[in-house]
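Priority: medium. Attachment 1 of 2:
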């Protein structure tokens, strides 16, 4: 389910491609902007029950910036489902492992928790450096 255009009650939704450079951007602030674009809140015909957002290509995920002591103090938790298997990773460890996961998890947490969230997340493309494969689609 990755439609480029969606027909909803006679309205054709045109999806655009946005390029977001994450270099020296604060993690939370840029995740908010990406979430707004994915939801379509920047469009004049926004409706919360309609999936009318655009595509987002985020580049330079390794060069994201955080404020304060979040690299050591911010902890990501993951439970495997077995008793006593609660995994903990700090933000610094997650950035070393895969910085794209940090961006994706931040954006996913800022989207509404409903049936449209997974479909919106498929329109987010994150790249570690400035090279990406969507050059022909971005204006």
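Attachment 2 of 2:
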């Amino acid at each position: 389910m990755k439609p480029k255009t969606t027909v909803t009650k006679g309205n054709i939704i045109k999806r655009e491609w946005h390029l977001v450079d994450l270099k020296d951007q604060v993690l939370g602030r840029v995740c908010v902007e990406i979430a707004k674009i994915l939801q379509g809140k920047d469009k004049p015909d926004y409706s919360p029950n309609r999936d009318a957002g655009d595509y987002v290509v985020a580049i330079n995920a390794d060069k994201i910036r955080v404020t304060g002591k979040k690299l050591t103090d911010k902890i990501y938790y993951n439970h495997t489902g077995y008793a006593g298997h609660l995994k903990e990773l700090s933000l610094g460890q997650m950035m070393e492992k895969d910085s794209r996961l940090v961006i994706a998890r931040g954006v996913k947490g800022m989207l509404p928790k409903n049936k449209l969230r997974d479909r919106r997340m498929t329109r987010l493309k994150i790249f570690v450096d400035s090279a990406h494969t969507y050059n022909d689609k971005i204006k």
